[in-house]
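Technical note accompanying the year-one report. For the benefit of new consortium partners, we illustrate the data format agreed upon in the data management plan: each record pairs a sequence with a C-alpha cell string. No post-processing was applied to the example shown here.
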Amino acid sequence: MKKYFISVALVAFMAACGGSDSTEKKDEAAAAPAKVDVTQTPEYKAGLALIAKNDCLTCHKTAEKLVGPAYLDVSNKYAGVDTAVAYLSHKVIAGGSGVWGSLAMTPHAAVSQADAEAMVKYILLLKDAQ
C-alpha cells in the first residue's frame, strides 16, 4: 500500500512541475508585443507613392548611397529625434548641403509641406521595416 501512495505522490509531483513550465511559456508569449508590419500602414504607403511620383529616386535609393544618402541611413540617423519630420521636410523643400557631404540637395519648392512630411515619415519608418 505504501508503494501505491508513493507512486501517486510522485506522479502528482511530476505533473505539478511540468504544468508550471507551460504556464510560464504562455505568460512570456502574452507579454511579448506583436510586431507590426509598417509596410502596411497608410503613412508608409502614402510616402512611398509620393517618392515614386517625384524625382527622389534619381539621387536616393533605399539601402545604398547613390548621389545622396540611402534612405535607411537617414532613417537610422534620425530615429527617435522628435524634430526629424519638421527638419527633414524643410530640407526636402528648401534643399541644403553639409550633413551628408558637400554635394547639395536641390530644392523641391513645388512639393507641398504635407507631401514632404509624408515622404519623410515613410523614410523614418524604414528603420522599423527591416
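Partners are asked to follow this layout when depositing records. The mean pLDDT is 84.
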